[in-house]
Amino acid sequence: MKRLAILGIIGLLAVALAPGATAAPKARKVSMTMTEFKFTPQTITLQAGVPVELILVNKGTVEHEFMVYVPPKAPPDDWDEYVMVNTFFQRMGEVAVEFAGRGAVASTSMFEVELQKGRSATIIFTPNRKGTFEIGCHVEGHYEGGMKGTLIVK
Length: 154
Fold this sequence. Notes:
The protein is α+β, with helices and mostly antiparallel strands. The protein has two helices and eleven strands; from the N terminus they run αβββββαββββββ.
């Protein structure tokens, strides 16, 4: 009887510790480069519920910003105000941003990441909103110069 109980415990441990038994999905790493005046790649496709590490690298010669939001029907008068209300990251829970060599922040109300030239950051999140969203840099003249892209979550 004692032997049977020990074998039962070992069996339960083997199931509990088996790879993938209850492990969270591995984060998908995606890189995006920012230059004058574009994002590369221009379109990113993600799966809802799968964690993401989005690595942003500013290879441009000036500051750029990364915003993701519901596409407006017409250009708003104030992009920052529009994006704050319509950000893709709304109701997503905690979103972490790690700035290479400069620390990290976590927030439940993130709406933009600003990067000086030569800097990089990693945004860590799990997308929970399906749809097509716009990516934009709204530093003066950048969006108008073509610095926009698309985020698709299936």
